[in-house]
Amino acid sequence: MEAVQFNLLAVLLLSLCLVVPFTLATEVKYCDRKADYDVKVNGIEINPNPIARGKPATFSISATTGKEISGGKMVIEVSYFGWHIHSETHDLCGETSCPVSTGDFVVAHSQDLPGFTPPGSYSLTMKMYDTDKNELTCIGFDFDIGFASSVADS
């Protein structure tokens, strides 16, 4: 009887280990918690999570807006252990379909990280601006880059 209970417990623990990584959500924080941004972020999906060095990573940001957005830009800042290490600017219409109608929309950005990217925890801040340079939203979130790398695969 103890062997059956042990096997059942082992199967349950293994199942949890397989399911939990897929259910973890990326916590999003607004840069200014008191601001009433025109774009509200509902969630972020990072694929794969953790990110693998030397392989493509996709950040999909689901959001809602109460006004139509004809265009604009996204400014991305990345920090590693508190040190600013990377900045980039993207045309908003290159990351989602424009014009963005009122309601739900998704901004998706894919990028290949070099195989020599150090593993660890990173912080990303994303600001979204309309064509008149009004800040539509500003969010921050953390993500991890794993130890796996495709450098050996090359």
From TrEMBL:
It comes from the Eukaryota. Coiled coil: none annotated. One of its GO terms (molecular function) is sterol binding. Residues 28-143 form the MD-2-related lipid-recognition domain. GO terms for biological process: intracellular sterol transport. Residues 1-25 form the signal peptide. Keywords: Lipid transport, Signal, Transport. Monomer. Catalyzes the intermembrane transfer of phosphatidylglycerol and phosphatidylinositol. Belongs to the NPC2 family. This is MD-2-related lipid-recognition domain-containing protein. It comes from Fagus sylvatica (Beechnut). The lineage of its organism: Eukaryota, Viridiplantae, Streptophyta, Embryophyta, Tracheophyta.
